[in-house]
Design brief:
This protein has two domains: about 55 residues, no CATH class; about 140 residues. It contains eight helices and no strands. By secondary structure, it is mainly α. α6 runs antiparallel to α7.
Length: about 220
């Protein structure tokens, strides 16, 4: 992501930096509905020293850049195996599980009403996005074809921003992935898996936007 500073909004940081969403949850910082606020202001509202919160985020940023292979072809293979295949497999069972939880607990005030529709939309957008990468963008990158990539990379970055909006919607309808007291095993399993899905999607986006794509942009 861009350089993290105290003027960046918590919504932007949460959607671009792996681990930031969980860090904000631990500090009770709302990065969804109230996410359009500068990091410094959010820290003060949460009773934190802004510079200390910034240091924690910078540590996450430093760690994120060391989690994947360096060589381009190996990095692409890592993205395909670690993220594309994983997203498909997890959404396949997360959607019916979310439907079950909504159906069984629909009258509960904390029920994640509308979650399954959001996941279906995410799944459809993500599948189209990943197929385009697999069939066109990544093969061009592996061939070292820089000339035709600028427009495609820009489009993929736009699609990443749309995926971030899906994640914000998930956070909203699940009340920040907060389970109510006495939540059943299915509800627990759903939110545990959603934690992982969100973290994976942010890490996936980070690897592409901040590590892979800059290698194919004009200097």
């Amino acid at each position: 992501m861009r350089q993290i500073d105290l003027d960046a909004t918590v919504a932007a940081i949460a959607s671009e930096l792996p681990g930031a969403a969980e860090l904000f949850r631990r500090h009770d910082i709302n990065f969804c509905c109230a996410g359009d606020i500068a990091l410094a202001d959010a820290a003060v509202r949460a009773g934190l020293v802004p510079e200390e919160l910034l240091a924690q985020l910078q540590a996450l940023s430093a760690a994120a850049s060391r989690e994947a292979p360096e060589e381009t072809s190996a990095l692409i293979s890592h993205i395909l195996e670690r993220y594309h295949e994983t997203h498909r497999a997890e959404l396949e069972w997360l959607i019916p599980l979310s439907q079950k939880v909504e159906r069984v607990h629909g009258d509960h005030p904390s029920a994640p009403t509308g979650l399954s529709v959001i996941l279906e939309g995410l799944n459809a957008d993500l599948e189209e996005h990943m197929k385009a990468e697999e069939q066109t963008l990544f093969p061009m990158m592996q061939k070292g074809d820089h000339l035709m990539l600028a427009a495609q990379v820009a489009q993929v970055r736009d699609e990443h921003r749309e995926q971030a909006r899906h994640l914000q919607a998930i956070e909203h309808v699940t009340h920040g992935l907060t389970l109510p007291p006495g939540a059943c095993r299915s509800w627990n399993a759903l939110y545990t898996a959603l934690h992982k899905l969100i973290d994976d999607l942010v890490a996936h986006t980070h690897l592409e936007d901040q590590v892979l794509f800059p290698r194919f942009q004009p200097r």
